[in-house]
Amino acid sequence: MIKIQPEAYSDASDKGTVPVASCLVNGIPAARYFTHISDRERVFRPLKLTGLLSSYNVFCLVRGGGTTGQAEAIAVGMAKALEVLEPSIKPILKQGELMKRDPRMVERKKTNLAKARKAYTWVKR
After folding, report:
1. Rounded CA gap, 28 and 67, in Å?
2. Which letter does DSSP use for residue 105 in this model?
3. What pLDDT, on the 0 to 100 scale, is given for residue 18?
4. Radius of gyration of the chain (CA)
5. Which residues contact 14 (CB under 8 A, 6 or more apart)?
């Protein structure tokens, strides 16, 4: 689940400051949740490409897979949410190939095999 909110000023005293948007993943800041720099860059790529990095607060809930897969899923979800909020940026997101998910899936385990394709050691006797 991805929830994107426009950045708003909290009160009149903040009017002069530039808003800083936050990105929380499972309640943890994205910079702390994703330890690899490549994962962090992948998460913020839709916002950087469209120039909306400090415009929205992002709250994500992800489960399963590893951190790289979760980062990719957040990026795709964020791109789709931004497309709904601002339809004019759709060509930028398509050109950056952010609207497609990775179609690869884990192959199922077959009967009489150790894994999907790994066979047990053949013994003659």
Report:
1. 13
2. -
3. 44
4. 20
5. none
Q: How far apart are CA 68 and CA 59, in angstroms?
A: 18
User: pLDDT value at position 109?
Assistant: 96
Q: Which residues have a Cβ under 8 Å from the Cβ of 32 and sit 6 or more positions away?
A: none
Structure-block tokens of residue 59: 């709250």
State whether residue 45 is helix, strand or coil: helix
Cβ(19)–Cβ(57) below 8 Å: no
The span from the CA of 5 to the CA of 13, in Å, is 21
Task: Give the C-alpha separation, 120 to 94, whole Å.
Answer: 45
Using 50 as the pLDDT threshold, list the residues of the chain that sit under it: 9-18
Length of the chain: 125
- Alpha-helical regions (H) of the chain: 30-33, 37-50, 67-85, 90-95
Give how far the C-alpha of residue 7 lies from the chain's centroid of Cα atoms, to the nearest Å.
19
What is the predicted pLDDT for the residue at 20?
A: 54
pLDDT at 30: 87
The edge-to-edge listing of strands for the beta sheet with 56-60 is 2-6, 56-60, 23-25, 28-29
